[in-house]
Amino acid sequence: MTATVAGDGSAILGAVVAAIALGAAARDIYLRTLGRRRDRYCRLRRLGTEAQLDFFAAVLGEPRAIRRTVTKKDSLAYLGSDDPGYEPEGLEIQTQKVRRDLTECFFIDRDYYVQTISDSDETVLAYSVTSCARRFRPRLEVPARPPLRSRWKMERRWRREGTKVLKVRLLRTRFADLDLPDPHRFSGVKFEAYTGARSYSYSEVHYMGAIGVYQDFALTASSATPIAGKPRELAAALGEVGADHWPIKIVLMTLTGRTCNYFSSFVVKRGSPGSL
Fold it and tell me: How many CA atoms, within 13 angstroms, populate the side-chain half-sphere of residue 32?
C-alpha cells in the first residue's frame, strides 16, 4: 500500500514537472514568434532615466553592442556656497558650465535600437528608442497609463482640467497630431532641425513638468531610420518661403513634412540642470 502511494506521488510529481517544462517551452516559442513584438513593447515600457545601465541590459536581454566615451564641454553643474565661482550676492541657485565625460551605449534589436547616455556611476541620464521596422510601433505615454479600473476616471479629469498629456506611437502618430485643438492654448513648439547632403533630422521637444517627472521628451524623424518618411529638399523649402538667408531651423518649420511625416524615435532626458 505504501509503495503504491509512493509510486502515485512520483507519477504526479513527474507529470507536474513535465507540464512545467512543456509550458516553459511553449512560452519561449510564443515570445520568439507571435508574441515577440508584444514582449518587446513590455520591455521598452520598463525603461526609465535614473536606472542603472546594467538594468537596461537585463530588461532588453541584449548586451551592449557599442560603448564609447563622449565628452560634453558645456555640461551644467550646481554650485554650492563652498565651490569656486559661487557668488554670495548672486542667485539662490547657481550653475556653471563644466567639462564632463559621459558614456554612450547602443543596444541593437532587429526591430529597434536603444541609445543611452550615462554618467560615471552608470546612471542613465537620457535614452532614446528608435524603430527600425515598419510594423514595430512602441508607445510613449506621459503620464504612464493608469490601471484599467481607474483609467477612464483619470483621463476624464485630465481633459476637464486641461492637463497636457503625451500619448504617441512611433510610425503612427504625426507631429501635427500633437498640436492642441484649441488655438488659444497653442503656443508653438520647441524644435531642432538639421539637414545635410545625405542626412537629416527634425525633432520637437516637450516638457511635461510635474506630470512628466520634470523630464524632457523629444520626438524625432531622421535619416537614422528612413521608414518614417523624408522631408522635401531644403532648396525647395527655401524657395517656398522666399528667404534664402533664413536659418535652417526656421525654414524647416514650413515643411509639409510636419503634417505628413511620422516620427520614428523618442528621447527621454532627465530635466535637472546637472543632468547632462
Answer: 6
